[in-house]
Design goal:
Blueprint (H helix, E strand, L loop, with lengths): L2 H18 L7 H13 L17 H13 L7 H7 L2 H12 L3
Helix pairs in contact: 2-5, 3-4, 3-5
Length: 101
Amino acid sequence: MHYFNKSLLMFFILVFTPIIVSGATISQAENLAQQCFICHGAKGEGAGKIPELRDLEKSDIVESMLGFKTGEESSTIMDRFAKAYSKKEIDLLADYFSKLK
């Protein structure tokens, strides 16, 4: 097969595979939330002293995350996680967790 044809084939495979196999893809928010699941649970249910996220309003989650990010809200570990997220990523996470039931 000619190099150009191989390159074109690879382009279509890489671009259209996620569309074709859409059941296997996850949203950007869910991908970001994978790290949160370790402590807060896959449904945001929390455990023990780890707070539940699924019943919080989006604005409350954003406010807390931004507080952790700036140091205005104290924490043992959340400040380190929050500092790694952009404002857009915090909004995506807050929206994701606020919609969990």
